[in-house]
Design brief:
By secondary structure, the protein is an alpha+beta fold. About 50% of the residues lie in helices and about 15% in strands. A 5-stranded antiparallel sheet has the order 2-1-5-4-3. Strand 3 and strand 4 form a beta hairpin.
């Protein structure tokens, strides 16, 4: 072999090695992304991945696309889920209320290294609407009278202590108005408790419609 021929074949081998190495790396990267995509599509929560530098959404799993398709098209994802995350670049947790859809979500975010090596924010979203509605129902049962819907006596005593403390601190004054229904016993005895209940509900609803009293009526 002449030296030029040896050099040519050596250069050719290096070129082929570079091509094969890049092809292997590309296939490995594609395979890694495919595996990761399959995992994230089956974790039971909506997930999207965002580049920390460019703010570009690199990936959204099937559940996120199905649930928030219009939000992605309208560019509403950041406004909806990231309003409280702009100053928090690490792992965080928050509750998000989506008023237009009357839904509640748990949002978990964490910084990870993506398959191509760049640093990204992974956001996991769980629908907790049923849990919030149940909590609201339990709180309402604890604080509200079953028949009238007004706050109950326990809630009144608790709030009254708070009002008194605020008045002492601020040097202000307040008033408690106590209403009683004369001869209400005769309505129950004469017409029956169901008519007494109707009267109590009607009076309670009327009181709640008075401006300034609606949130402090017990």
């Amino acid at each position: 072999w002449e030296m030029d021929e040896v050099k040519f074949f050596a250069d050719a081998v290096r070129v082929l090695q570079n091509i094969l190495t890049r092809r292997i790396q590309k296939n490995s990267l594609a395979g890694s992304f495919k595996s990761l995509e399959a995992i994230l599509d089956n974790v039971g929560s909506a997930i999207y991945v965002k580049d920390m530098e460019t703010e570009e959404i690199l990936f959204a799993n099937r559940m996120f696309k199905n649930t928030f398709d219009s939000e992605m098209k309208n560019g509403m994802v950041e406004k909806l889920f990231e309003a409280n995350l702009k100053y928090n670049r690490g792992t965080s947790y928050s509750e998000v209320e989506y008023k237009e859809k009357r839904r509640w979500y748990d949002l978990h975010t964490t910084v990870i290294q993506w398959v191509d090596g760049r640093r990204v924010t992974l956001c996991s979203i769980f629908d907790i609407t049923d849990k919030k509605l149940y909590q609201k129902k339990i709180e309402q049962q604890a604080n509200n009278d079953f028949l009238t819907g007004l706050y109950n006596r326990m809630c009144c005593e608790r709030d009254l202590l708070s009002y008194i403390d605020e008045a002492k601190i601020g040097g202000s004054k307040g008033a408690v108005l106590y209403l009683d229904l004369d001869d209400f016993k005769h309505i129950n005895d004469g017409l029956g408790h169901q008519y007494g209940d109707v009267l109590l509900k009607a009076i309670s609803h009327s009181l709640q419609r008075i401006e300034g009293v609606e949130n402090s009526c017990y």
